[in-house]
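In the previous lecture we treated proteins in isolation. Real proteins rarely work alone, and many bind small molecules. This record shows how such a complex is specified: first the sequence, then the SMILES for zinc ion.
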Amino acid sequence: MERRTRDILSGLSLLLCLATGGLWVRSYFAWDKAFACGAVAGDVQRVVDFSSARGRLSVSVERADGFSLGSPPREGARIYSDEVALAPSPPTRLGFAFDKRVASLTYDHTAAVPPKRTTWTATVPHGAVAAIAAVPPALSMAALSRRRAAARRTGRCRRCGYDLRATPGRCPECGTATGGTIAARPNVCS
Ligand SMILES: [Zn+2]
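The predicted 3D structure, ligand included, written as C-alpha cells:
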C-alpha cells in the first residue's frame, strides 16, 4: 500500500478511535441512538438501528415482513438520545453478544402471510472498538519514528529518503526542512 493511502487510513482510524472514546464516556450519561430505514418494497422493510449505552455499542438489522407487527413502517433516518436508565441491558459475554430474534403476529388472520419481524443484533464494548481503531495510528507512529531515526543516522530526508549530503537544510526532492546543519548554509550577513 502506498504511504499516502496508509496515512489517510490511519488518520481515519484515529478519528474512529477518538469518536468511540467520546461515545464511550457519553454512554454512561445518555443512551445515544440512530436508525436508517430502507424503502418499503412490497410489504417488506429493512431498518438498521444503532445504540450506545453503558459501555456497549449495538448494531441491529431488522427485516419486517408484512408491515412489522401491524405497526406502520418507519421512515427516514434519525440520530437522537434518551435517558440512559431506559436502555435495556441484555446479557453479554464480556460485553459481546449476538442475538437473532423473530417476532410474529399470529392473530392477524387477514394477512396471507403472518406479519413477521426478524432482528439480528451485534453488541460490542466501546473499548474493543477503540482498541482496534488505535492499532493503525500506533503502527504509523512507530514506523514514522523508525524512519526518522534511520534518516538521522544516514543523512537522508526523513520524509522521502532523498540523500541530503549535498543539500543540507532542505530536501530538494520533497521540500521538507531538515532542520539540519546551519553551518553548511551560506552566511549572507557577513
Ligand atoms: Zn524529501
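Summary for your notes: Residues 182-187 have pLDDT under 50 and may be disordered. The first strand starts at residue 30 and ends at 37.
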